[in-house]
Design goal:
Elements: E1 7-13, E2 33-37, E3 53-59, E4 65-67, E5 71-72, E6 76-82, E7 91-95, E8 110-118, E9 129-136, H1 143-158, E10 166-172, E11 177-178, E12 185-188, E13 194-197, E14 223-225, E15 234-241, E16 246-249, E17 258-261, E18 266-268, H2 270-275, E19 278-284, E20 302-307, E21 316-320, H3 329-339, E22 366-379, E23 384-396, H4 402-410
């Protein structure tokens, strides 16, 4: 250790069952975790009890068995476990927000907003950036006109950013209608106006047959809601090619590529959109410059919007607050990188680039266990001296039960 009294130890395990009772450390597979009573060569899978001294070991990505210090179960001060919780990206709505609100449509008005955003992923210090978006309404202004104008300008303003921080989409207060029979599924592709209708239909649970989809149940000029809630975006259908079985949207689809079945979407007529209240939904995107622990940190974009007085009574709502959740790859990788310093690995100093071997795996999510303990092994001439430590155990989510097994061993309900 690097001259620290209180340290945190981290183990990052794969979706592998806990080392079986009696098996030795040599049996550990890469990413596998085992619990050993002090003085025992064989692993234990039973619940620890008062008086037990134990260590927790795993084989890391380099094939080395890493082990915690010997810990006395009586000296565990606190312990907790949490299953994976996905991060959420911030979402703000101008006008209709999924529940209420509207855009105050005014004739011949200059609508101007400023959007401020920040993150410290690239340079470890927050620098607030700002852009503006504007739309000049004409005579007989409508909510739909103003919303579309703002969305187009927002997209144009951020088109020059090397890393896109946001997407802007249209939402409407109309509940929408079920899509008629025949449209089996639609494939939306990020950045494309072209939407294809699925050519391999659902298997009917009764007949066992499959029917190909077609676009005849949809109407040009109508809007497709990509989802079923009022906060899901709507896109206008510009045209339909029944021969090629494709749709052409008026604007390129902004979200992540997705294929939805007909009962997972709704159709909103042009008339209903025009009669309803409109909203501009602005969603922060996950930072896409590529997490590199120690270089580009795990972070989220946070932003604020200021509407000029020209917006009048237009409502501004935070629909989703940003949270980092628990157990994402970025969180686990960054914490492990930092805590490698406790084992004498000087990743926090020296010249870049560095090759750091981590046990966290891109694309995986993790359940987390942590506990704090006291160590009273040190003595001075006149008294016993206590030091403190922590253990963090991250295990891949999956069906092999490692998280539940560790909770049993550690007595975490």
């Amino acid at each position: 250790m690097i001259a620290q009294s209180n340290v945190t130890h981290m183990l990052v395990g794969k979706n592998i069952a806990i080392l079986s009772a009696g098996a030795t450390r040599d049996s550990l597979a890469i990413g596998q975790i085992g619990v050993f009573l002090a003085g025992s060569q064989g692993a234990s899978t039973s619940a620890l009890a008062a008086g037990n001294k134990f260590t927790i070991a795993y084989r890391n990505a380099e094939g080395v068995v890493i082990e915690t210090p010997v810990i006395e179960y009586n000296n565990i001060l606190s312990k907790s476990a949490i299953t994976y919780q996905a991060p959420t990206q911030q979402v703000l709505a101008i006008g209709f927000n999924g529940t209420d609100g509207k855009i105050d449509a005014k004739d011949n008005t200059d609508y101007v907003l400023h959007i401020f955003w920040s993150d410290n992923s690239a340079n470890f210090s927050e620098i607030t950036q700002v852009k503006f978006a504007a739309y000049a309404s004409g005579a007989n202004a409508t909510e739909l006109e103003v919303a579309n104008g703002l969305i187009k300008n927002l997209r144009k303003q951020f088109s020059r950013e090397p890393i896109k921080p946001f997407i802007a989409e249209l939402i409407t207060s109309d509940a929408g209608d079920a899509i008629g029979t025949g449209v089996v599924g639609l494939k939306f592709t990020k950045g494309s106006k072209l939407v294809s209708v699925s050519t391999s239909g659902d298997i009917d649970d009764t007949t066992g047959t499959s029917s190909n989809g077609n676009a005849t149940a949809l109407a040009a000029g109508a809007y497709i809601r990509v989802g079923k809630t009022k906060t899901d975006p709507v896109y206008k259908i510009a045209s339909i090619n029944t021969t090629a079985n494709t749709l052409l949207l008026e604007d390129a689809y902004q979200g992540e590529s997705v294929e939805l079945e007909d009962d997972e979407m709704l159709q909103v007529s042009a008339t209903d959109v025009g009669d309803g209240h409109m909203g501009v939904k602005i969603s922060a995107l996950p930072i896409s410059n590529g997490l590199q622990p120690g270089i580009f940190r795990y972070d989220q974009i946070r932003f604020d919007i200021q509407l000029k007085d020209s917006f009048g009574d237009t409502k501004l709502t935070e629909v989703v607050a940003p949270t980092k959740g628990s157990g994402s790859y970025g969180e686990v990788a960054e914490v492990q990188w930092f805590l490698k310093g406790n084992r004498g690995e000087p990743w926090r100093q020296g010249n870049y680039p560095k090759t750091v071997v981590l046990d966290a795996t891109q694309g995986k999510s993790y359940n987390m266990i942590s506990f704090n303990y006291a160590d009273y092994n040190a003595r001075t001439l006149d008294r016993q001296v206590g030091s403190f430590g922590s253990v963090i155990i991250a295990t891949e989510t999956g069906s092999n039960g490692i998280h539940a097994s560790l909770k049993t061993v550690l007595g975490i309900s």
